[in-house]
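Continuing the batch. This is chain 6 of the set; chains 1 through 5 are on the previous pages. Same settings as before, nothing changed between runs. Recording input and output for traceability.
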Amino acid sequence: MPTPKVKDSDRQRCAKACGNCKRRKERCDGSRPCRRCVSRRVETQCRSSSSPTSSTVRPEQVSYVVSQPQPSYLCSPAPTSQDAPQHRHASPRNRSDCRDESDEPAQVATSSDIAAACLYSYHLPETVRDGYNDIPFVGNTANLSLLQQVHQLVEKSLGPSSISQKHLQHHLVDPCGRSASSKLTGASCPPNKPTLADSIYLAQWCLRATNSVLGVVNEEDLLHDMFQWVQTTSNTASISDPVYYLVLAIGAQTCPEDRDELAETYFEYGQHLTTNFFMEDPRTIAVECHILATLYLLGASRRNAAFMVFGNAVRASYALGIHQKDTGATDTDESRYRERLWAAIRKLDVFTSVSLGRPLATRECRDTTADENYSPSNDICSIFEMILVEVYTKHQVAVDSLQRVTERHRQWAGRLNFQFPEGFDTYSTCEPNITLLNLKESYYWTIMLLARPFLLQTVFSQAAQGRLSGMRDAINTSVAIRSTSPECILAHACVDSAVRNLDMLEGLLSTPYLPKRLPFTINSVFGSVMTLSIAQFADFDLVFPLGKSLDLAQRLLGKFRVHDAVADHYLSIAEYLRGICDEYLERRVRREMERQNLLIRSMIGSIHEPPDVSKEKNTERVEDSMVAPCDPIGPAFMMHGSIPFDMQWLPGTQTSMANTLDKFDEFMLPDLLSPTTWLQ
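Output for chain 6:
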């Protein structure tokens, strides 16, 4: 007989209870955040539970719902109603054994469980509203998503974190431009043309800022056309005027002097002309205008506005067939121009999609690995696309996908070293080669994206073991992070890329004449900061100079903080994370000191106040069996040339990286869509 329907007034539980209250079996008021989560100071995790129950899952849906098993060490020997999880999720190998956790008694952890279980769950980020009370989409690749992972790790390891909901919300609020009335006034009153010397000066700064990243503007043609444009006295706007005004806007935005007001004036009028001329008809010059406008908005820290404007460039390029290699363009100059536009679109698409955590707007239809007209920039964008599609879109890390991506990495690094057989110096002249800097930044970024799930798996594994035992033995931790297992090698690769990316950018600190806004570089520095901060909680400072690299990142962000709102916000977060890492190091050293003090007191006595007895007992229980036995590793990775991470071989082994990946067990791979929330 079916259960009779209960009136809403007679319900004992809230139908819209949040996931935290459901898991803890507590009364929820249904609001977001609820009062119970606010009182527990976990309001950032208060959200509706979207995981289906076992009774609502159809048999054909099991393969999409099930995930890795709940590690047994997260269950206490005598679970209470507050911390018992709702369901036990079965792995693909044990789907037939999937059943409710209440049917089985909780088990105490063993070393084999810790060694075999997949210890990291890459769940979707928390719900954060922006300044317009909307809920923007934030994917797993976004900086905000990784920042929330750091926030949860800090809370579970050191206690309540000062990264509150306001910090996360500020990360989504971009600076606004001028008001609508000011924009209308500026559109009706065209700005005066600059002098010839001033126009050449601003155009050169624009070329220095844009061609180093995108290479969309031809320097010789631009300077020649702008010379003629400045000499004309006609008040009638031509079809080329939007390009000139946008070039002047970017030049005024990036030059050393404070010309932000003038830059905004040029930009608003250039956007006004772009809208009037190219709103309905797609043209190649319209694609160029939208690309320049996107780059200006990125420099102005208006990332969402840049994302919207960039969509116009993508649609126009597809309408013109720029994404195809053979489009019937007979003119060689026209063909090269279209190739430059498509390359710029791909770079902007990868940057905006990965940094904001949004789907790609373009797809590469060409063979970027072909020897004819090979471009390392186009090839690295293809590697970005492969990582996003094979890993983050599928929410899982498969062995074959990992092998394909790492093989592309080795090929790309080998071809770059072949093009520069004698090495390539980024700072060989008085000005840095920003083009080469951005190319190498992209290489390091792809490695950090690919290896991030394995680094997080390692960190959350160490945090879980530390919580279970009360502390971690320094020797066992040192052995664990020097393992030669493939997942540990990839975690090392993530941290190694972050360290070397910052070392490569150190030369910018001593560069006198530099564009004061470099959004690609700022994003790269902040990604390295969060990677190194996460690595600190797994004691990777025993292998890498994390403290020195974090200090270097703060100096790099501080160089751009005056004119870049995003860099200023990133610097405040970097300073906070540096303090958190110092606190973690102090606690680790203090625990080791107290551990040694137990032996000292037993030998020569002590006159100072002993620590808490319960902590001492937990300290004495630390044993080597809490960490799975791992093989020690020799020196750090062998580095070749300026591309340091070469996955061909490891010291002390005769196994190539491609063969090493064959040792992966599907059960050990990180699950990117597991509904389990670790350490809660």
